Structures are given as C-alpha cells and as structure tokens.
Amino acid sequence: MANKLVIKVTAGADAPERCSQAFTVAAVAVASGVEVSLWLTGESAWFALPDRAAQFELPHSAPLPDLLDAVLAGGRVTLCTQCAARRDITEQDVIEGVRIAGAQLFVSEIMPDGVQALVY
Predict the structure, then answer these.
(1) How far apart are CA 23 and CA 7, in angstroms?
(2) Which of 29, 43, 89, 118 could hold 84 in an S-S bridge, CB 3.0 to 4.6 Å?
(3) 95 DSSP assignment
(4) Which Pfam families does the record associate with it (predicted)?
(5) Are 106 and 79 in contact (CB under 8 A)?
(6) Dihedral sign, Cα of residue 45, residue 48, residue 50, residue 52
(7) Cα–Cα dist 13/49, whole Å
C-alpha cells in the first residue's frame, strides 16, 4: 500500500463530478492517515482563492470548502505555477496553506517508491 498519494486535479466548475471526485479522494485519504499532496491545475486553480470553493455546487456531494479544509488540515495543497500565472494569481492571493510550485516539484513528489499519483 502506498504511503503517499499525489492527486492532480485539472477540473473545476467545468467538470464538477471529476473535480468533486478528486477532492473527495484527497480528503478521505487524509482521514485514513495517508500523506496527501493535492495539486490544483487548470480550472481547479481557482479553488486556491478565498471563497471560490464555496461557489462550487454539485448535488449529493460533500461541500467543496469542507473537503479543501480537510486536505489543508492534514495534507498539502499546491497551485501550479503556470496555471496561477495564466490567471494572474499570486502568493498573496491564495488561501493560507496553499503553495505555488511547478512541474519540477510535482515530478519530485511522484518519483519516490511507494507513491501513487492520480489525475482527475
């Protein structure tokens, strides 16, 4: 069993089911004691901003702000550098606990033995 799970979520409000699945898996993994790194890329980049997760709605799913809070409390959330730049998002704009980093760090996170990576 992997001791670390890296999840790259590319979907946001444009594909709500994929987005919700990624956040749900991340939050459940954190609750299960797995080390989690959740990467926000593409349209999910917007969820690095305060109050953006509260605007997300999907019937019969856990509230996105609760899932994001769970991951921030027990895991790591990273916003893609290029995705942030394309949206004019800076370090000063993001929720406390969200870092901005690029592909080099993503690759270093997924390369060690025992790491599983999922892309949504």
Answers:
(1) 9
(2) 89
(3) P
(4) DsrE
(5) no
(6) positive
(7) 14
Q: In what order do the strands lie in the sheet with 4-9?
A: 98-101, 76-80, 35-40, 4-9, 115-119
Is 82 in contact with 89 (CB distance < 8 Å)? Answer: no
pLDDT at 112 over 90: no
CA neighbours closer than 13 Å in the CB half-sphere of residue 58:
20
Whether residue 118 contacts residue 7, with contact meaning beta carbons closer than 8 Å, is answered with yes
Dist. CA 120–CA 118, nearest whole Å: 7
The residue type at 38: L
pTM attached to this predicted model: 0.92
> CATH fold of 4-119, please?
Hypothetical Protein Ychn; Chain: A, (3.40.1260)
